[in-house]
Amino acid sequence: MSVKVEKIEKNKVELEVTVEAKVFTDAVNRVAKKMANQVNIPGFRKGKAPRSMVERFVGTEALYSEAVDDILGVEYMKAVAESGIEPVDRPEIDLVQLEDGKEFIFKAQVTVKPEVELGDYKGLEVEKTAATVSEEEVEEELKRRQEQHAQIINLEEGKVEEQDTVNIDFAGSVDGVPFDGGTAEGHDLVIGSGTFIPGFEEQLIGAEIGQEVDVNVRFPDEYHVESLKGQDALFKVKINKIKRKQLAPLDDEFAKDVSEFDTLDELKADLRDKLMKAAEERAEMEYKNAILSKAVNNASVEIPEVMIDDRIGAMLNEVSQNLAYQGLNLETYCQYTGTSIEELREQFRVQATENVKSELVIEAIAKAEGIEVSEEEIDKELAKLAEQYQTDAENLKQNLMARGEMDVYRQTLVNEKTVNFLIEQA
Questions:
Q1: pLDDT in tens, 246-258
Q2: Is 46 left (phi over 0), alpha (psi -120 to 50) or beta?
Q3: CATH no. for residue 192?
Q4: What burial class does residue 320 get, using C-beta atoms within 10 Å of its C-beta: 0-12 exposed, 13-18 middle, 19+ buried?
Q5: Are 201 and 68 in the same domain?
Q6: pLDDT surpassing 80 at residue 206
């Protein structure tokens, strides 16, 4: 095989690949033998017809086409390896010479990973924010714990207040006509949660158990049901039950009940320490991101659209998977939010572009500085991962290799090592 590489655009190259005649001839012979077993050729038992008869029966074009399918992928990958290019998209193939007994020649135009022009990335000056925790934050965390351990009581009597959970029956109508999804019985609603249409929950405040309330609302103009957009509606609502949180007093007894500490002061001190640790981690992450952002902004690279589109696709897949855990799909989400998948793609475009550029710049810095990870370093990180997930490190490694993900994991470690290098140099 011989390969000629020609740069035709900034991020696009054309490979002209010449494959030995024997490779194509052997492929044609294999295909002819396979076809002889699949078709009935008069005068011959299955599998016994010579290639010339098979070719006459199925046609030269069909025979050659399947032979090309048989070898093209393999020969293209060999050409990629020999030329040293890094494709980021599928190639456009043009068959130049396709004749038995002659060299098989094809051209492949393919988009490749772009070249990065690095700017300054050493000695970057970034101010590190000092981690602090205020007493207000400690009190807020304490109140959150108080809310978390609150008891829910069913009121025997009383009126609906903010943050109450009310059990209601309701029936909605527009101009006196009921609509789909507007009726329910025994529905629990937290007042102030914003779950229902704006104005609905507020009109229940002050209602008593057993009371029936007329709730007048207007559906938002961007509501996900087309027929209800901007429509005035009346809901007949009955209050069945009122549930209310009962907060325990913040004292030493509370501390004993919700923690391993005997006093409220000890619990506060522990919360303060944990909040400080979280603040320090945030400050460190912000510092790291600021350094990386400077290095990325100082570099220039023309990113092929296909790389951005692929990243947007990956981001959409992640959203789709997260929605699936909630029993939703992307189409339903788009209906609820009044958007489309194409609009979502555009919303993700800026972030996708930034992510791709960051990765390209990190890879370029790693290459410029000769940053690599050894097998020992990989094994060490896998051991940490295995301990975290309580599994066997060797099994984890074998699974990565079996799924073809070891190179991706290796690159992840190289990227982490490169970012740490930038921090050390800052």
A1: 999 999 999 999 9
A2: beta
A3: 3.10.50.40
A4: middle
A5: no
A6: yes
